[in-house]
Amino acid sequence: MEIIVKNITEQSILEEAFKIRRKVFVEEQEVDETEEYEFEEESTHFIAEINGTYVGTARWRKTENGVKLERFAVLIEFRSMGVGSALVQTVIQNIPQEFTYLYLHAQLTAMDLYAKFGFTQVGPMFVEADIKHYKMELKR
Question: Which domains does the chain carry?
Answer without folding.
Answer: 3-99 (3.40.630.30)
